[in-house]
Amino acid sequence: MHYGREFMEAVDELHAQYDYDPDFWSLTRRLNIPVAVGEYNSAVILPGRPPRKLITLNSDVYYGTWTFTRFHELAHFVLRDSGIEKQLRGEADDPNQFTAWVEGYCNFGAAQFQAPNPMLRRVLGRWGYAPHAVLELADLDGVDLFDAMHRVAHGFLDDDARRTVMLIQNKRLRKCVSTTYFPHDEGQRLPEATVTYPGTRLLTLPERFGWGRVIGVLNSA
Q1: Quick one: average pLDDT of 22-40?
Q2: Please, are residues 129 and 163 in contact by the beta-carbon 8 Å criterion?
């Protein structure tokens, strides 16, 4: 993300003003952003003086327990208010590229709202960039295992980060998040990760995450 550090700082600055409130409903209430059930998940600017913000969520997301999509919509407002969305619009070659960029930023923002920078620092201070860090983040309320993988893989968006977080099951790569080139597709057989990629740290996940699932974290030089 070309403006990744700027966006991360914008999310952090906003969230810090509200003591890194981890509760979406509490945070949007304090931000005075109403949330309503709608046909689509969206972050809308309503006309008026001044313009008003509104988040709509489909009923599954509104009444569900997974917080990622909710925070994704909140991240849209941060992207707009920071001016980064306008910059991306001017640099994109076409609407599809612009949309892909925006969604990528907001996915990162959603994960950051779920596991704010101070929390990530504490977890990484305890475990480093390791499978146990993924597990600890995945134990947070409303945080999916895949969200935790993204948060650990991308960390603080360091320019020199070369990390790959893998979810392996039955010797196949089920999910992969990488900040560098990784030459394996999801679903591909990866029988011995530590042999294929020496230095990979592995952890067998508790059964609540699915039978026989293993998290691998590779920190490349």
Answers
A1: 96
A2: yes
Confidence at residue 34, expressed as pLDDT on a 0 to 100 scale: 97
DSSP 8-state code for residue 184: -
DSSP SS3 for 53? strand
Could you report the per-residue pLDDT of 86-115, keeping only the tens digit for each? 999 999 999 999 999 999 999 999 999 999
Alpha-carbon distance of 143 to 138, in angstroms, equals 5
Which pLDDT value is given to residue 221? 56
pLDDT of residue 220: 75
- Per DSSP, the three-state class of 146 is helix
CA atoms of 87 and 201, how far apart (whole Å) = 39
Angle at Cα 148 formed by Cα 160 and Cα 31, nearest 5°? 100
Which CATH number describes the domain made up of 4-114? 1.10.10.2910
Contact 184, 131 (CB under 8 A): no
